Amino acid sequence: MQITDLKNLLEKVKSGKLSIKRALEELKYLPYKNIDFANVDTHRGIRLGFPEVVFCQGKTKEQVVKIIKEIVSNTGFCLATRSNYEIYRSLRRIYRDVEFNELSKTIVVGKKNSKIKKTGLVMVISGGTSDIPVAEEAAVTSEVTGSNVDKLYDVGVAGIHRLLNHYERIRKARVVIAVAGMEGALPSVIGGLIDKPIIAVPTSVGYGANFNGISALLTMLNSCTPNVVVVNIDNGFGAGFVGSLINRINES
Predict the structure, then answer these.
(1) Distant-in-sequence, close-in-space partners of 156: CB < 8 Å, separation ≥ 6
(2) For the chain, which has fewer Cβ within 10 Å, the N-terminal or C-terminal residue?
């Protein structure tokens, strides 16, 4: 349930179009519903403006499908991350409106039912082509949570002219999500060029001393550029969600 749904429900009760008994049925599962192996947060949309997102990694296919069905029955749509083709194939048997992004490993169910309008601009920039899967997770997340998204990939500091060539395009964004592995210098460079918030995403891309993304994480955490904040290694979803929240902050 979204905040607009709750308002509509209360308006119907006030006008007499809906009985109190029926309204109580609609609100029965606030703030969550237990389905044995999971407590589905049906209140998430009211608190954050977007339903609970399903993190598929570590869950069985059957668990993921059951959780998604519960969320979709309550909100009309759902985002799932760290998914796979098998889960997508199972969902295709149930829903017509299912999108699977193979790069980002995200699934969006019921996108056409989403009542969230896109606004502003979040720009997702990757240092290298190997960082694109994480960047795509951020891009998909920002888009479905209500942001227009522009993507600029493989413009890392090893060939910084590639980035500088898009300076005017980058300046148009309200928020920039900078995704990079190796030494992770990209967010600091972008932060020194523009006056917008930069969400840095370290990736696990790199050779041995990269320590699966720790070197990039430490570089980003130690950035001297004051408009840079950092999320966890490979956390494209977290960056995309927060980026969209910042982008939409003056639209509510």
Answers:
(1) 126, 127, 128, 162, 163, 180, 182, 186
(2) C
Length of the chain: 252
| CA-wise closest residue to 52 among 80, 85, 90, 83 | 80
Q: What is the pLDDT of residue 30?
A: 66
Q: How many Å apart are CA 12 and CA 20, to the nearest integer?
A: 10
Q: State how far the alpha carbon of 104 is from the alpha carbons of 75, 135, 179, 228, in Å.
A: 23, 8, 13, 23
Q: What angle do CA 111, 117, 118 make, to 5 degrees?
A: 95
- Token match 């048997």: residue? 93
Q: What are the extents of the domains in the chain?
A: 3-112, 119-247
Class of domain 119-247: alpha beta
Q: What is the DSSP secondary structure assignment for residue 117, as one 8-state letter?
A: P
**Is residue 139 within 8 Å of 104, Cβ to Cβ?**
yes
Q: How far is CA 167 from CA 163, 192, 215, 239, 240, in A?
A: 7, 12, 27, 21, 21
Per the listing, tokens 């891309």 go with: 205
| E strand or H helix at 216 | helix 214-221
Taking the C-alpha atoms of residue 151 and residue 160, their distance in angstroms, rounded to an integer, is 17
56-96 confidence digits (pLDDT tens): 999 999 999 999 998 888 888 899 999 999 999 999 999 98
Contacts 24+ apart (CB under 8 A), 97-101: 101/136, 101/140
> Which residues are CB-contacts of 145 (< 8 A; sequence separation ≥ 6)?
49, 50, 79, 116, 240, 241, 244, 245, 248
DSSP 53: P
Q: Whole-prediction pTM value?
A: 0.86
For residue 29, give the amino acid letter: Y
